Amino acid sequence: EKSGYKHFMLKEIFEQPRAIRDTTLGRISLETGKVFLGEMKITEEDFRRATRIHIAACGTSWHAAIVGKFMIERLARVPVEVDYASEYRYRDPIPDPNAIGLLITQSGETADTLAAQREMIAKGMKTLAICNVVGAMIAREAQGTLYTHAGPEIGVASTKAFTSQLVALFLFALHLAQTRGTLSDDESRTLVESLSLLPGKVEEILRSADSVCEQLAKIYSGARDFLFLGRGIHYPIALEGALKLKEISYIHAEGYPAGEMKHGPNALIDESLPVVVLATQDETNRDSHLRYEKTLSNIQEVTARSGKVIAVAIEGDTHITQLVDHVLYVPPASELLLPVLDIIPLQLLAYHIAVRRGCDVDQPRNLAKSVTVE
Ligand code: F6R
Fold first, then answer.
1. Separation of 297 CA from ligand 1 center, angstroms?
2. By alpha-carbon position, which residue is closest to atom 8 of ligand 1?
3. 369 labelled catalytic
4. Where in the sequence is the signal peptide annotated (predicted)?
5. Whose CA is nearest to atom 11 of ligand 1?
């Protein structure tokens, strides 16, 4: 059942190229660049009229939601609000029948996410679910469901479900943009093509990063704390990298927007603190490049205080190798899709550290795969 892998988590990490391909399958046309979401009770007119999108989710799915906010706002120019599902009700969301509710959930049974969905519906909103389990409660109560086709996820730590959620969010953002006319046909075609190249790129990372992460685990598995830093769309990936590490290895880890370091966390840096920095960039995108340059200054702030830096960077970035202790390389991609590549080495790093520490990777203490109580 683990197909020769030592743990379900490792098997599921290696299934990601297939999961991403299946989530995309039948939903895109490479010729026209068009994206199809399938039948739902949310109409094209609803999408055109939408004043905003409210997203609610928990844990890893909440990280996907923040990435989704960047994708949707960039491509479709619709404002997006992201809430922890467990918090959504407590802010008494302002009723807006033209807002669309979006729930992101692997299991489709998370109690807090279901409660947020019911709150949305009570406030007059239509809801769309991005869900991995067919026929789950949240999908049944939604006016539309975009299924991720990651397949059953057994490991408690979400891996392939997460990357499939990112892909589903990218498809949703593209479809919304196409419906609202905010993207040219050329832009659509380029983005869809770039999406179709993702599985091959993930395969490439899996081939190269696994042994590097095993080596890194030897050096850093004894660390007491870890920091993960990123900017812009890479910031939620820093959060997700930290969550993966803490939940399966029990090492305290925090994710931060890189620019926040000087507002407090810099005080933590010393020679015993490993800092993982997301320093990938899309060189064809000016904003992405500027973010990268600023991230390099943050790296220098860490190394100047003797912190150890593990960077995730684009293949061929020789400049960064001179600044940091270790580099994990990923192939180049469009800025909005880089998060799918960024997270792969961080999953492998968390996995190998947890294995070295003798942790029960597939069944971490105190956690359940599906959280059906609020
Ligand atoms: C972490 C993890 C959890 C889930 C969260 C929401 O690896 O798996 O944080 O993401 O419990 O679960 P779903 O997506 O099923 O609603």
1. 33
2. 158
3. yes
4. none
5. 59
Task: Please give the Cα distance from 354 to 347 (Å, whole number).
Answer: 11
What is the ipTM metric for this complex? 0.99
End-to-end CA distance of the chain: 32
Distance 249 CA to ligand 1 centre (A): 17
* List 41, 126, 218, 369, catalytic entry: 369
* Lining residues, ligand 1, CB within 6 Å: 58-61, 105-107, 110, 113, 157-158, 243, 247, 370-371
What are the residue ranges of helices labelled H in the chain?
Answer: 8-14, 16-24, 44-49, 59-76, 85-88, 111-122, 137-141, 160-180, 185-196, 198-220, 235-249, 286-304, 318-321, 338-356
pLDDT in tens, the chain (374 residues): 899 999 999 999 999 999 999 999 999 999 999 999 999 999 999 999 999 999 999 999 999 999 999 999 999 999 999 999 999 999 999 999 999 999 999 999 999 999 999 999 999 999 999 999 999 999 999 999 999 999 999 999 999 999 999 999 999 999 999 999 999 999 999 999 999 999 999 999 999 999 999 999 999 999 999 999 999 999 999 999 999 999 999 999 999 999 999 999 999 999 999 999 999 999 999 999 999 999 999 999 999 999 999 999 999 999 999 999 999 999 999 999 999 999 999 999 999 999 999 999 999 999 989 898 88
